[in-house]
Each structure stands twice: as C-alpha cells, then as structure tokens.
Amino acid sequence: MNPSPLAIPNWRRNFLIFLTGQFLSGITSMIVQYAIIWYLTMQTGSASMLSFASLLGMLPTVLLSPFVGGLIDRTNKKALLIISDAVVALFAVILFVAGSLQATFPLWLVFISLFMRALAQTFQQPTIQSVLPEMVPADDLTRANGQLGMISSANFIIAPALGAFLFSLVEIRFLILLDVIGFLIGAGLLLLVTLPDHHHETRSEPVHPLADAKAGLQLLATRRGLLIITLIGTLFTLFFMPVGSMYPLMTVQFFHGTVAQAGIVEVVWSVGMLAGGFIISIWKNWSDRMRPMILSYFVVGVTIGAAAFLPGNTHGFWWFVALNAVAGLAVPFFNTLLMAMIQQSFAPSTLGRVMGVLNSLMSISGPIGLIMAGPVGDALGVQNLFLIGGIGSLLCGLLTLILPAARHYDRDLQAEK
User: Which InterPro entries does the record associate with it (predicted)?
Assistant: First the structure.
C-alpha cells in the first residue's frame, strides 16, 4: 500500500544516512537520560522518586499518543523530527543554566525536563514509524525495521555503561550538553535525508485531535486481526511491566548480587535484542511473520518464568543471565515484525493517526503494571513476579495462536498485495 521509495535516487544511501543520524542522536540522548537517573539516585536515594520519574516517562505516550497522530500525518515529518530533538536540546540548556547558578538542579526542573523528553519521544516514535514505509520499498520494510531495532538495541548496550562512566568523570551540568551535540549532529544528517512528500492535500486540513484519535481507532478496527494482536500486546505489557521494573531487585535481593551484576543482565538482554534484530535485518523470506511472533511469546514466557525456579545464589544468577540472553533474542521477533505489518496495513497518509492509537493501546497498561509491581513483589516475593510474567506471556502466545484472525493476519495481508 505504500508508494514506492524508488523515486528517491539511492534510497539505500538515503536510509543509511537516516539510520546514522538516529543512532548518534539516540545515543547522546540516552547517555543524558541515564546520567539524569543516576543524578536522581545519588541526590534522593528514593525509590519513590525513581518510580515517579519512570511514570513521567510513560504518561505522555499513554495520554497523548492518540492525539498526535493527526498532526504527524499533516506535518512535514522531517521538520517534526528536528523540532522534537530541538525541544530536548533546549531543556538541556535550561538545566545547564540552572546548574550553573546553584550547586544542584532544582528537582522540579529535573522532572519537567524528563517529562519534556518523554513528550518529544511521543512525537518522534510514531513519526519515525510512519516515515519508514516512505523511504524503503515494501519488500525491504521488514529488514529495515530490523536494522532500526538494531540501532535501538546498540544504544541500550552502550548508553548505560558510557552514561555511568561519564557521570563519574564529568560534572552533570556539562554532561547534559551532550543533548545539544546530539541535536546538532542528528539535525544536520536529517537535512541530508530525502523524504517523499505525499501529503500536500492534507496539509491544509485543520487538526482535530479527538476526531483524529477516533479516525485512527476506526482505521485500526477495519483490521480486526491487527486490533486483536494489539489488545493481546496490551495484556502482555500488563504482565511484563512489573517484571521489567524488578530486574535490579531480582539481581541484588534474590541472587544477592551487585549493582555491576545488575548492569550485566541489562547489557546481555540488549545484546540478545541486537542479535535478534540482526537476524531480522538479513532474513529475506517472510512468508508468515505471525509464526515467529507467536513463538517469541512462548520463548519469553518460558525463559522469564523459569527464573522463578532458580536458586538464589551466584550459580542461579548466571543461569538468569543466560535465560535473559534468550529472552532478549526473542523480543525483536514480536516488536519488529509487528511494526512492519502495521506499516504495510495502512496508507502513509493515515499511518500517523493509526500509530498514535496503537502506541497508546500498547502502553496504556504499563503504568498499571508499574504501580502493581511494588505491592505484589513485596507480598509474593520478587521471583514470583517473574513466574506471573512468564505465565502471562504464555497466555498471550496461546491467545494469538487460537484466534484465527490474529494467527492468519500476515498471510491475509500478503494475499492483498
């Protein structure tokens, strides 16, 4: 359904420049993000403050995603990506100035900055997702999403270690200026990228957020199988979010490990995701993408659930690391393949509205799971959260398997071509 990007000369080179810009601006932004979290940890030592920071990072996506899609569909997407990066850089400068005028950052300003970063991401993610089909031919779209996923995974591998290292060496007010450097590099490379403009007819249309959110939901409802897959993904988020927030506690409390060992688990998970993204990026024959998607639910369910039965010692910890490498490998086969199917299911002129609704639906259960994580973990033990998460993932895989509209969605989609 997407117009051919072959009208762009050298589309592969064009996409490579785009990927490079996303990597460099993304890595600088994530380093600053980790540095800010380290700063909050050192300044407050409060789990409540860190939980509040996590919620701030999720709320814009949950609350605003359905309403930004119409703007994305009617706006120059290159300009929107540059502006959202510029907002992050602006608040980095504001924090730098505040940190230069007094010994510490005002916490209220730190939280506002975190919120604005999340708000910018709320615009960036669906914009990137909706622009990809306009840059890459349909036959290469799945592999392109795999390459974009590899960029994200590489950032998750590099940024935590580099952020902690730089935090120990560089004064925080100077470190946050990496956001400005990342903006300049990312915007400069993005200016070199050619993006097809197929939306002249929609530019003059007024933006009606509520009507656009309704239109996005109606468009999604026309794809019954995709709507079912999305709702099952929402259920998975509800089960997995408590698990995701408890990884450091699982390492330190249950396995009696160190903070460094908790970092190893995160890096290994990201390496697994990088490997999964690499497999997707080189694989050419995707006759039925639902099969590996369903399998990924079962792999994540078994590996996460098995962690609950490990002994709480060093030997158990290394088994935990191995299980998370496998789980990380499986995750891109859900996220990346689903994204490619979504992009091929709707016209580029409406994809922003659809992505806004989808992102909100997929993440709406996240804050609920995050709020539940502490009380449930305290009552049942952190290891049993992993068992619940594993069972939940298996349930999601089973639901996708037994519902024909979901199980056959990709085959039906490819039959439309």
Answer: MFS, MFS_dom, MFS_trans_sf
Amino acid at 264: I
pLDDT value at position 198?
A: 54
- In this structure, which long-range contacts are made by residues 282-285, counting pairs with CB atoms below 8 Å and at least 24 apart in sequence? 282/143, 282/146, 283/142, 283/143, 283/146, 284/143
Tokens of 241: 């979010």
Per DSSP, the three-state class of 258 is: coil
- In contact, 225 and 412? CB cutoff 8 Å: yes
Residue 61: pLDDT above 70? yes
Residues 321-361 pLDDT 10s: 999 999 999 998 988 888 888 888 888 778 878 888 887 78
Crossing angle for the helix pair 366-380 and 47-74, nearest 10 degrees? 160
Domains of the chain: 5-200+207-415 (1.20.1250.20)
Most confident by average pLDDT, 65-74, 251-260, 307-316: 307-316
CA dist 115 and 123 (Å) reads 13
> Helix (H, G, I), strand (E, B), or coil: what is residue 233?
helix
- At 183 the pLDDT is 93
Angle between helices 382-402 and 290-306 (to 10 degrees): 160
Q: CA–CA separation, 5 vs 139, rounded Å? A: 11
SS3 state at 368: helix
Looking at the predicted structure, is the pLDDT value of residue 116 above 80?
yes
Six-digit token string for 233: 């993904």
Is the sign of the CA dihedral 41, 45, 47, 51 positive or negative? negative
